[in-house]
TrEMBL record:
Protein name: Response regulator transcription factor
Gene3D superfamilies: 3.40.50.2300, LytTr DNA-binding domain (2.40.50.1020)
SMART domains associated with the record: LytTR (SM00850), REC (SM00448)
Residues annotated as domain HTH LytTR-type: 155-257
Keyword DNA-binding: yes
Domain Response regulatory: 5-120
Alphabetic keyword roster: DNA-binding, Phosphoprotein
Organism annotation: Duganella aceris
Residue positions where 4-aspartylphosphate is found in the record: 57
Length: 257
């Protein structure tokens, strides 16, 4: 049986430690691979570690657990979500984010055992059964197909105090920052306000590859890959010194390289 990997996100360290100790009692084969103290850190660690399960405190600084779950829903391999909180009024909204379960702090061993049972069922479900469930949902109500929009061809970006019109063919890679997305070109860097998640929808996926939650790279500028001393997969670019980290969720793109 494959090891099930988990992340625990809570802004109170002693509560993270308490939940981990309880989990060791009821699910000894579970491996907690990361702890996060806030929502942004949780997103980063989930992207890097690709856990199977994420225990998310709902009330965290910055992004709440609900915000984190909503962002994960659009990712390629979202983990199973269990919300943990002291406030049961969040229950309805929590399950709207497709949580496997909902725990009130402090979670008792008896209650946690029920959660673990649900998680084990979900993590060991046969792919065929999951596919059958998906097909059944699609059979009930499938929206009419929407014609695909043409891939993005031009970008209007800020460079210093000027606005520049950039051909998509000039882009080497995109990298998201707090409020902006950086556009890296052969002759410098420009900024746009379009979030990376929105940008991804407008790009030709054959020409632009997402390799990290915060990075999309132009495939024609990829020279190859290597592993660094920490075991991370790194993308090497043609004619550029910087190397880009590939998160665990996207390493399958490079299996054949």
């Amino acid at each position: 049986m494959n090891t099930i990997r988990a992340l625990i996100a809570d802004d109170e360290a002693h509560l993270r430690d308490y939940l981990e100790s309880q989990l060791k009692t009821v699910w000894p084969e579970l491996r907690v691979v990361a702890h996060a103290a806030n929502g942004l850190e949780a997103l980063r660690l989930i992207d890097e570690e690709a856990p199977d399960v994420a225990f998310l405190d709902i009330r965290m600084p910055g992004l709440t657990g609900l915000d984190v779950a909503a962002r994960l829903a659009s990712g390629p391999k979202p983990p199973l979500i269990v919300f943990v909180t002291a406030y049961d009024q969040y229950a309805v909204e929590a399950f709207e984010q497709s949580a496997v379960d909902y725990l009130l702090k402090p979670a008792s061993l008896e209650r946690l055992e029920k959660t673990v049972a649900k998680l084990k069922t979900r993590t060991t479900a046969a792919p065929a059964a999951s596919l059958q469930a998906l097909l059944a949902q699609l059979a009930v109500a499938t929206p009419a197909p929407v014609p695909a929009a043409a891939p993005l061809q031009w970008i209007r970006a800020a460079q210093g105090d000027q606005t520049r019109l950039i051909s998509i063919d000039e882009v080497i890679y995109f990298q998201s920052n707090d409020k902006y997305t950086s556009v890296f070109l052969a002759d410098g860097e420009s900024l746009i306000r379009t979030p990376l998640s929105k940008l991804r929808e407008q790009l030709d996926e054959q020409k632009f590859w997402q390799i990290h939650r915060s990075v999309i790279v132009a495939a024609r500028h990829v020279a190859g890959t290597r592993q660094d001393f920490r075991g991370r997969l790194m993308v090497q670019l043609k004619g550029r010194p910087e190397q880009l980290v590939v998160s665990r969720n996207y390493v399958d793109l490079f299996r054949q390289m």
